[in-house]
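Lab notebook, design round three. We kept the backbone fixed and only want residue identities now. Task for the bench partner: fill in a sequence for the structure below.
Input structure tokens:
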């Protein structure tokens, strides 16, 4: 195993770390909120009394976006987040590490099989800041009795009309001047269009709905034909 030679906080984002290895490589990591427990087979690192979980950009599009120089990353300690498309919790688990026990992640997933895996890997393993919701993100009213006002809405559902679905949710749940984070998967939106055309169309939907675009990065080489967009409510 390659030895760890240092850990330092990310130059811009609190709660995100760089782990340096003796071969000169650096990898992203977060502090494990549930020490000793893994969520997706990730490497655990012990350093100066803390346990870190290596954050794999090939498995998590948020990590890929950070690796590719994302400038605005609104998730911080204590953030309240509505996360649409939680899947089996790979990215949610790192977001859970970052927001800590003062934060909350309302995690919406509509596949019952995947949802069960999410609950087993995150909630049953002791992540108290994660609230699993089995529901369809296209119908935000389905979870109005559970979700309170949030700072950020994040979507990664790999379905058409993601920007519209994100705005439909953010209009209801995101606080004034709060943030939206949109993973665009060009192929699953419209296979007949070039990625850049799809990206522009999705961004235009957000703009038309009253969101200012703060940042956008492509996710190659970690994911092809994907981009991450960060926006903010203008009122
Ligand atoms: N965000 C996850 C991560 O990084 O760990 C990966 C998400 S995966 C690309 C997309 C997920 O969205 C799938 O688990 C799928 O079942 C879910 N999904 C698709 N359409 C949905 C919808 N309308 N409502 C809720 N979940 C949906």
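Proposed sequence:
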């Amino acid at each position: 195993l390659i030895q760890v030679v240092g850990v330092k906080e990310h130059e811009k984002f609190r709660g995100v770390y760089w782990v340096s290895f003796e071969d000169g490589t650096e990898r992203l990591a977060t502090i494990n909120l549930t020490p000793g427990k893994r969520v997706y087979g990730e490497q655990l690192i012990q350093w100066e009394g803390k346990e870190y979980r290596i954050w794999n950009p090939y498995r998590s599009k948020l990590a890929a976006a950070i690796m590719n120089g994302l400038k605005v990353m609104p998730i911080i300690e204590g953030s309240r987040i509505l996360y649409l498309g939680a899947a089996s919790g790979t990215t949610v688990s790192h977001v859970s590490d970052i927001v800590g026990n003062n934060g909350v992640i309302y995690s919406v997933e509509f596949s019952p099989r995947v949802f069960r895996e999410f609950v087993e890997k995150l909630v049953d393993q002791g992540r108290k800041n994660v609230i699993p919701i089995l529901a369809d993100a296209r119908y935000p009213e389905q979870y109005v009795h559970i979700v309170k006002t949030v700072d950020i809405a994040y979507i990664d559902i790999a379905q058409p009309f993601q920007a519209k679905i994100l705005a439909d949710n953010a209009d209801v749940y995101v606080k004034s001047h709060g943030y939206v984070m949109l993973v665009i998967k060009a192929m699953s939106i419209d296979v007949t269009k070039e990625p850049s055309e799809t990206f522009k169309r999705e961004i235009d939907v957000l703009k038309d709905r009253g969101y200012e675009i703060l940042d956008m990065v492509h996710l190659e080489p970690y994911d092809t034909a994907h981009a991450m967009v960060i926006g903010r409510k203008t009122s």
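Keep this in mind before ordering anything: The mean pLDDT is 95.
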